[in-house]
Design brief:
A two-stranded antiparallel ribbon has the order 1-2. The longest helix is centred in the last third of the chain and has 25 residues. The mean pLDDT is about 90. The protein has about 150 residues and is mainly alpha-helical. The protein contains six helices and two strands; from the N terminus they run ααααββαα. α1 crosses α5 and α5 packs across α6.
């Protein structure tokens, strides 16, 4: 039995939310435009040259409609823009505006500082080991055979 009784995906989700909550609170305190966790997640999976809404949805693990709503709100906030996709006459790419780039750089600095706070709280060795474990290649997700009995 594990100390908390929670499985690893639950613990990883809690850790992600710790970073997310601290990031959003810090950015809000700094006077940045408020964004939702979904909108913040969109920034994390956006390519520099731009990404289609369909690809953003796939990377985020959400519906195309959810990704489109997040994009629309960030475009309205002046953080993202839609531009024609040079490889397709029908699609548009979503990319950061100059203000979106500035905000993204600020968020990256905050996340770096938060990693330092985590290291102070759980120890630098544990933080390094956690990073190494999460960066280790895991291979493709397996499809396990059903348990019998």
């Amino acid at each position: 039995m594990h100390a908390t009784g929670r499985n690893l995906p639950q613990l990883l989700g809690d850790a992600r939310r710790w970073f997310e909550d601290a990031l959003l609170a810090t950015l809000q305190e700094a006077g940045e435009a408020p964004v939702s966790p979904t909108q913040a997640g969109l920034f994390a999976v956006l390519d520099e040259e731009g990404t289609t809404v369909s690809e953003l949805a796939r990377r985020m693990g959400v519906t195309r409609q959810t990704a489109h709503q997040a994009v629309h709100a960030l475009v309205a906030a002046g953080l993202l823009e839609q531009v024609p996709d040079p490889s397709s006459g029908r699609q548009r790419l979503i990319r950061r505006t100059a203000e979106g780039e500035r905000t993204h750089r600020e968020a990256e600095l905050v996340l770096h500082r938060l990693e330092g706070v985590l290291a102070e709280r759980i120890g630098p060795e544990v933080t390094r080991a956690l990073r190494a474990a999460l960066e280790a290649p895991r291979g493709s997700p397996p499809a396990l055979a059903p348990r019998e009995g």
